[in-house]
Amino acid sequence: ALGENLLLVAKKANGIIHSIKQLSGGQRVILAVAYRLAVNTQDLLVLDEPTANLDKDNLHMFRDFLRDLSRTLAQEGKQLLMVTHEEALVSSVGGGHGVFDDVVRLK
Prior knowledge:
This protein is α+β, with helices and mostly antiparallel strands. Helices cover about 35% and strands about 15% of the residues. The protein has helices at about 25-40, 55-75; strands at about 10, 15-20, 45-50, 80-85. β3 (about 45-50), α2 and β4 (about 80-85) form a beta-alpha-beta unit. α1 packs parallel to α2 (about 55-75). About 10% of the residues are buried.
């Protein structure tokens, strides 16, 4: 498999390189999404519950990351589809602060 011999590392803003085991939950999620972006050749990126194990601070960091990612993908003619139970990611849609243009709520 592709990941068997892969060593994932991340360079933080302070310039220090860490192994994935040294990263926080939020940083691991962002790294995982970045990896998917690197290998994704499709026009649609699907994220299934990427915030399931994030604390409040990491959730806010990830929301900001998603907002930037969504804009970048839109500029490239690509779309982001996310399945989540996290209301904080979708509650401000339409108010200019949300991550997504449209939200479909299933009950």
